[in-house]
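Take a record.
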Amino acid sequence: MRALTGIQPTNILHIGNLFGALQPAVALQHDTDLAMMIVDLHAITVPQDPKTLRERILFLAAAYIAAGIDPKKTMLFQQSQVSAHSELAWILQTVCRIGEAERMTQFKDKAGEKSEKVSVGLFTYPILMAADILLYDTEVVPVGEDQKQHVELARDLAIRFNRDFGETFVVPKPVIRQSGARIRSLLEPEKKMSKSATNAKSYISIMDDADVIRKKIRGAVTDSEDGITVDDSRLGLKNLLTILHAITGQSMVDIAAGYEGKAMKNLKDDVAEALVLSLEPMQAEINGLLTNEDSLIAIIAEGSQKAKGLADVKIKKVKQAMGLLL
């Protein structure tokens, strides 16, 4: 069964990305034929500094591997190295209806009141996402709840294309991630931890050093209630318990029970130390991989070549179905 997922090489990779997306992907590679993208074409829907973007592409590849993605098991590739993504995205734009594109809520959320000034790419990127999915006969797409709408668009476009031009695409199914922990902002726990947050104290970067981690966790917003309990109304506390659960695998109820008679400070200290111990080996491996850029580039190129072979077959089939090939 083919599964596809990926992360944009933008901003800071934080523990929400690690526990919510990367670790579930690592588990997925043992049960599926996993395609793991470095989603750089989506990244350029907003302005990027070329030098910084290149560095982040390499960093993300290193983070994938350090987290446990095995390039021998998983097709780890760079989206922009496979030209069929852009080509199929254009073809699917001719199949997609304006009303469907306008209903995508992520554009409204990201553009806000500046919708007339943002790039067209930010508006059409769900169609590019559909191309990403449909190119590889993807059967399951693990996503967060906020991306489910985009997978449903991919389903609609696949069904319409198959109806109008003959059976060409596998119709994918969104799978809402259950195994990944949903990590919230340390300062605004009603919001999820975000790579685009302006205040660095709201997230833990996977590359933060021990002192920074301890300081950020100490400053995490909780509440003044007594006791450590698992309570959905105590979002800040639950966030700390969720982080410990993601690291240890122990249930939040059992974790909370271990703090009977203890203070919030004890929990924060333990969360900080657990994060330091869990991140240090990954940080060391990432730094080691980044010292050998040529090797990292070769891994990306090999995976991208494999992806290109699959994508080229599919795009040829699409063109034949549409009458574009003579």
